[in-house]
Amino acid sequence: MTHIAETQNYSETQILFAIENFIIDVFTTGIKQPQLPVFKDLLERFEPIYNIDYYYYDHISVFISLKLIIDQMRYDPNNEHPDNYEFVLELAGEHLNFLEIIANSMKAKVQQDLHQFDLQEENNTKSLVDYVEALFNHYSKLLIVRVDLGYTKDAKSNIDIERFYRHFEVMRNRLSNKDTFFEHLQGYSWAIEQGKEKGYHVHLLLIYDGAKVQNGSYYAQRAGEKWQEITKGEGSYFNLNCNEYKNELRQAGCEIGLGMVSRNNEGDWDLLLAVISYLTLVREDKIMQRLRVKVEKNMQTFGKGQFITKKRRGVDRS
């Protein structure tokens, strides 16, 4: 059972995760009176961040359905409840039973949504593999760069989905336009996630023409610094191409294709596949990193560039 301490200023993400845990409890045990203080607390915390124009998913949509029922009771002129959620603590009997029925009626839809998420991740993986393979076969060398974009610890509590979306929209435009240090960028991909501790963040894959640029750590750093500029200092980044991180991977027996790879080097394609897998494959924790809310119904959580060429310089892989 999840309860948010009164003394801390929690982010939108942390509130949504707490709501999800509460609904999971409801699916498992129903709604009992000992849970009502948690329910009241979450209703109070969700109210100021709730936006009727946003799109909320799976467990959060269940909570909103329960909230609408509670709000009907709260604002019913025939009831003498004060204009707050204190009356929730007194709910019992048929009221709790009705809330349980509503929640359970949506359980199958939640499971369907989560299954659909898995299927979409599989489609994303296939799409990205095909895209990167075309680049790998076309260019003699590629510089593979990975950088994760997020927010500083102090900024996270102030970052909601709207601000994050606007920040990353600017970053995507920089990628598409190949501004400054993106000039020799031949391909890219990104995956948006929402972690309980990390909050909103992006896994970014940059693919440069290896015949024109070197030093992946430099380009990862420049991308991270651009993110910090866009977010006016609220953003943070992690450079996966830095030697320290790559050495940690090697010591752990994990070799992936960060840095320079070539179609002429046996084994480089497999190393590159490992990079792709991290972005898209359904890992054990991947489903926990999905977005719970979107500013637009069709807001993408995965994207990549386009590869168009009239003449391929490499050979197709089988």
What secondary-structure arrangement, pairings included, does this model have?
Blueprint: H1 12-29, H2 36-46, E1 55-56, H3 58-74, H4 93-105, H5 107-138, E2 141-151, H6 161-177, E3 185-195, E4 199-209, H7 216-230, E5 235-239, H8 243-251, E6 259-262, H9 268-280, E7 293-294, E8 302-304
Antiparallel strand pairs: 1-7, 2-4, 2-5, 2-6, 3-4, 3-8
Helix pairs in contact: 1-2, 1-3, 5-9
Structural commentary:
Residues 136-290 form the YagK/YfjJ C-terminal domain. InterPro entries: YagK_YfjJ_C. This is YagK/YfjJ C-terminal domain-containing protein. There is one protein chain. The protein has 318 residues and is an alpha+beta fold. The protein folds into two domains: 12-105, no CATH class; 139-304, Alpha-Beta Plaits (2-Layer Sandwich), CATH 3.30.70.1430. The protein contains nine helices and eight strands. The protein has helices at residues 12-29, 36-46, 58-74, 93-105, 107-138, 161-177, 216-230, 243-251, 268-280; strands spanning 55-56, 141-151, 185-195, 199-209, 235-239, 259-262, 293-294, 302-304. Strands 2, 3, 4, 5, 6 and 8 form a six-stranded antiparallel beta sheet that branches. Strands 1-7 form a two-stranded antiparallel ribbon. Strand 3 (185-195) and strand 4 (199-209) form a beta hairpin. Helix 5 (107-138) packs antiparallel against helix 9 (268-280). The longest helix is centred in the middle third of the chain and has 32 residues, at 107-138. The protein is elongated.
Span from first to last CA? 51 Å
What is the number of helices?
9
* Secondary-structure arrangement, i.e. CATH architecture of the largest domain: 2-Layer Sandwich
Q: Give the SSE string.
A: HHEHHHEHEEHEHEHEE
- Helix fraction, binned, reads 40-55%
Largest sheet: number of strands, sense, barrel closure: 6 strands, antiparallel
Backbone CA Rg:
23 Å
According to CATH, the fold-level topology of the largest domain is: Alpha-Beta Plaits
Strand content: 15-25%
Can you tell me the CATH superfamily of the largest domain? Multidrug efflux transporter AcrB pore domain
Structural class determined from secondary elements: alpha+beta
Low-confidence stretches: 310-318
Shape assignment: elongated
CATH class designation of the largest domain = Alpha Beta
Beta-strand segment tally: 8
Query: Into how many domains do the coordinates divide?
Result: 2
Mean residue pLDDT: 90
InterPro entries: YagK_YfjJ_C
Domain YagK/YfjJ C-terminal: 136-290
Pfam families: YagK_YfjJ_C
Organism: Acinetobacter vivianii
